[in-house]
């Protein structure tokens, strides 16, 4: 195990003593004890479930302090305490095993190897009382083998439960502690009135909003809120979505050339104009009329319910229990989620039910809100952040879309999110329109919904793949300059669903916006990372939102690095950087026959085709892993003539690619249509990280006392070496050489120049590996699959690959 802890706040010794006193680990009378006896008293206090002196002694006797002495014998035989003895005991309490994880004669060596924090003492053989207390405080806040701090470990055993005088909320080392009673959480429902009328019924759309808050809020404690806007929260219509999925086995077609500028496709739609007046309030209530007990939850939100935060879920317009229509990401959905934030901040009206006009305030809220969530959920957090809404203090944005065009399209092409060939904005709208699940409600709204769905299908222009007003209305990048909230972004470098270009564009759009922003890039695909062993992500979020929502002065902005990247070459390794996609160093490679050369290029044209026989076509459509393998492999296959593979010479030293690799091509198509795909590949036989994080501790993360659990996960090496790995891939329609809305002419067998950037990455090449570039046409996983008789020719003399590299 390697421990990367970014969320330990370096506090003064006086603050350590104060906090240890608050949580009853220390009192002034203990200052008279010898270091060994002080450590013993601290350990006894930690054995919270051993209620007798005999059991505490028995527990202590089960721990080893030296290679040949149990902890009780050692501590009873001396007044001195060595750092080796202290950390031998600590390692065992952190769930590390003797002989497996460390040796009793060298605990400090294991501590250093696993990157566990240690105190520096003047005399390692005789710690002072101050050393012991400093080491104990650090020990409480150190991550254990089970992926949480030792203090969290103790809390899940009931350490805090035994005290009635703890402040609520409670912060130790700058982070909120699980002192709230999760056995008595309050579950209630309100209906937030939005400034929308998307279903045109003459009344503003009401949004069903589910609230989970600590019972302590009924006794005067005001708490901030974690709000997750999840269109999936009220159920999905998966069968309907499957039936609507578009056929992708169809040809690429020619588009009529135009001279569009951005002004021709700019959207000015505003769904808040010309809407009905607000409902007349007929009374006020403090208690809602509706409760709920079974809900979809996000484990990180659950973690914070025990720590003095309310959690709110709302699926938004067009979902079960709410009013309005789904619109797949446009301004209406932004306003929908924004409205809930406004209510939580005390600036919007909600009602106890949809009909009686009895208003209810979020009286338990301290009016500070964070938005959380991944994918569509994080997308709406990005959207709401771009409004600058009052009360939204921060967002934890994971794998989020910043422009829906970059999700369903690319450079003038219909380009599916990985794993969802044939899905589009209309399919997603149908899937999340959960009002269908109420038969009576759907009966009344069905004609209007069918009309709305048909409009989405028409306006998304699936026949052209062009950027138009529909997609411009779903581009949050235009408004990110309005952001007032501090932002923590998380994204997978291997995410083939919400591609990394989305977080890259957000990161760059916020460059000059005066908010604090952080970025974490992991090696996963479309996943959450709050249950990883090697990084204290949940503690980082705790530090972050304790600062943003409670105003705790904990140095969160300084402690959390600007950019944190998980290394792709070895497990449990995270590196920090000042920026991403801003490299000033580039290597330009020229295209040779089968090689990439920084000095010279081929003189002869290089050609490939797109068509494969019908049997191979059917196989590749149904078995994408086979297509991927045959595409990247140099061995003969049905794809041998359908690609050009270029490789660098084996690297003599490590190389880190930082940002967007750029492809410059002079290319011609045999027809008046064409697309080019380019894939960056790591060639070199090696054991690589697993595609998904592996469960290494089933339900071993405890989120509070008698509260929910989560699996502990980590990326490990694959069992067997592999010869290559896809890094990134991108595509372009040859009729969209300048941008996604201007359509260029394309004539058969006439060279055109095209330049486009691949998806951004941060990739570590090891020595002896080769960087590979594959040029091809149809991407069976993403583009239309026309299997057309088209051939392409590249002129290497005017083609190149520009690679941004990281240098310190």
From TrEMBL:
Instruction: Cite the EC number.
Output: 3.4.14.11
- Catalytic reactions on record: Hydrolyzes Xaa-Pro-|- bonds to release unblocked, N-terminal dipeptides from substrates including Ala-Pro-|-p-nitroanilide and (sequentially) Tyr-Pro-|-Phe-Pro-|-Gly-Pro-|-Ile
SMART domains attached to this UniProt entry: PepX_C, PepX_N
Q: Where is the Xaa-Pro dipeptidyl-peptidase C-terminal domain?
A: 542-802
Domain X-Prolyl dipeptidyl aminopeptidase PepX N-terminal per the UniProt entry, residue ranges? 1-159
Q: Which GO terms describe its molecular function?
A: aminopeptidase activity; dipeptidyl-peptidase activity; serine-type peptidase activity
Tell me the leader sequence span: none
What's a GO biological-process term for it? proteolysis
Complex and partners: Homodimer.
Protein purpose: Removes N-terminal dipeptides sequentially from polypeptides having unsubstituted N-termini provided that the penultimate residue is proline.
Q: What is this protein called?
A: Xaa-Pro dipeptidyl-peptidase
Which species does this protein come from? Acetilactobacillus jinshanensis
Q: What is the lineage of its organism?
A: Bacteria, Bacillati, Bacillota, Bacilli, Lactobacillales
């Amino acid at each position: 195990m390697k421990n990367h802890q970014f969320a330990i706040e370096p506090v003064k010794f006086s603050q350590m003593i104060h906090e240890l006193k608050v949580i009853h680990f220390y009192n002034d009378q203990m200052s008279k004890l010898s270091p060994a006896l002080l450590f013993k008293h601290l350990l006894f206090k930690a054995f919270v479930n051993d209620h007798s002196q005999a059991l505490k002694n028995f527990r202590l006797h089960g721990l080893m302090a030296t290679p040949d002495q149990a902890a009780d014998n050692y501590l009873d035989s001396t007044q001195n305490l060595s750092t080796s003895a202290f950390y031998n005991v600590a390692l065992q309490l952190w769930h590390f095993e003797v002989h497996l994880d460390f040796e009793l004669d060298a605990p400090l060596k294991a501590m250093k190897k696993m990157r566990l924090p240690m105190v520096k003492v003047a005399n390692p053989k005789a710690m002072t009382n101050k050393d012991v207390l400093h080491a104990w405080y650090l020990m409480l806040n150190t991550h254990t083998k089970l992926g949480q701090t030792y203090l969290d470990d103790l809390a899940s055993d009931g350490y805090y439960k035994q005290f009635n005088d703890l402040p609520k909320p409670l912060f130790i080392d700058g982070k909120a502690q699980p002192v709230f009673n999760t056995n008595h959480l309050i579950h209630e429902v309100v209906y937030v009135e939005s400034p929308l009328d998307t279903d045109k019924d003459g009344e503003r759309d009401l949004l069903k909003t589910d609230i989970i808050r600590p019972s302590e809020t009924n006794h005067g404690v005001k708490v901030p809120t974690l709000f997750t806007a999840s269109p999936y929260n009220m159920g999905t219509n998966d069968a309907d979505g499957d039936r609507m999925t578009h056929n992708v086995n169809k040809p690429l077609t020619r588009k009529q050339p135009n001279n569009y500028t951005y002004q021709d496709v700019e959207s000015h739609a505003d769904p808040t104009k010309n809407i009905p007046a607000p409902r007349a309030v007929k009374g006020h209530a403090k208690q809602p009329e509706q409760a709920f007990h079974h809900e979809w939850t996000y484990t990180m939100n659950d973690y914070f319910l025990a720590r003095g935060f309310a959690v709110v879920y709302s699926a938004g317009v067009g979902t079960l229990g709410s009013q309005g229509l789904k619109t797949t990401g446009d301004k209406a959905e932004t306003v929908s989620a924004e409205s809930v934030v406004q209510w939580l901040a005390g600036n919007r009206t909600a009602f106890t039910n949809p009909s009686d006009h009895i208003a209810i305030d979020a009286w338990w809220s301290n009016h500070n809100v964070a938005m959380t969530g991944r994918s569509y959920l994080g997308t709406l957090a990005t959207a709401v952040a771009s409004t600058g809404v009052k009360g939204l203090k921060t967002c934890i944005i994971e794998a989020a879309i910043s422009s829906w065009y970059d999700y369903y399209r690319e450079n003038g092409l219909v380009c599916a999110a990985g794993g969802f060939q044939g899905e589009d904005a209309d399919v997603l709208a149908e899937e999340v329109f959960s009002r269908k699940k109420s038969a009576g409600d759907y009966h009344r709204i069905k004609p209007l919904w069918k009309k709305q769905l048909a409009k989405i299908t028409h306006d998304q222009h699936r026949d052209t793949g062009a950027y138009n007003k529909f997609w411009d209305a779903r581009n949050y990048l235009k408004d990110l300059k309005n952001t007032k909230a501090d932002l923590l972004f998380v994204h997978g470098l291997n995410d083939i669903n919400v591609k990394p270009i989305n977080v890259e564009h957000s990161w760059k759009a916020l460059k000059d916006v005066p908010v604090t922003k952080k970025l974490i890039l992991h090696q996963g695909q479309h996943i959450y990372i709050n249950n990883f062993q090697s990084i204290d992500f949940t503690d980082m979020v705790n530090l972050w939102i304790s600062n943003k929502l409670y105003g705790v002065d904990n140095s969160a902005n300084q402690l959390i690095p600007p950019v944190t990247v998980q290394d792709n070459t070895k497990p449990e390794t995270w590196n920090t950087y000042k920026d991403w996609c801003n490299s000033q160093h580039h290597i330009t490679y020229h295209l040779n026959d089968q090689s990439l050369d920084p000095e010279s290029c081929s003189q002869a044209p290089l050609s490939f085709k797109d068509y494969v026989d019908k049997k191979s076509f059917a196989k590749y459509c149904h078995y994408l892993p086979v297509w991927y393998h045959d595409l990247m492999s140099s061995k003969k296959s049905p794809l041998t003539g359908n690609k050009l593979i270029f490789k660098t010479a084996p690297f003599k030293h490590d190389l880190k690619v930082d940002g967007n690799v750029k492809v410059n091509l002079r290319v011609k198509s045999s027809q008046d249509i064409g697309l080019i795909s380019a894939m960056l590949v790591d060639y070199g036989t090696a054991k690589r990280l697993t595609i998904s994080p592996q469960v290494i501790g089933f339900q071993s993360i405890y989120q509070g006392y008698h509260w929910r659990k989560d699996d502990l996960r980590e990326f490990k090496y694959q069992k067997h070496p592999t010869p290559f790995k896809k890094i990134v891939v991108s595509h372009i329609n040859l009729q969209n050489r300048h941008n996604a809305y201007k359509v260029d002419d394309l004539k058969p067998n006439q060279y055109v120049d095209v330049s486009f950037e691949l998806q951004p990455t941060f990739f570590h090449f090891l020595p002896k590996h080769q960087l590979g570039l594959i040029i091809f046409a149809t991407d069976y996983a993403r583009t239309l699959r026309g299997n057309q008789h088209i051939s392409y020719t590249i002129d290497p003399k005017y083609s190149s690959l520009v690679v941004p590299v990281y240098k310190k």
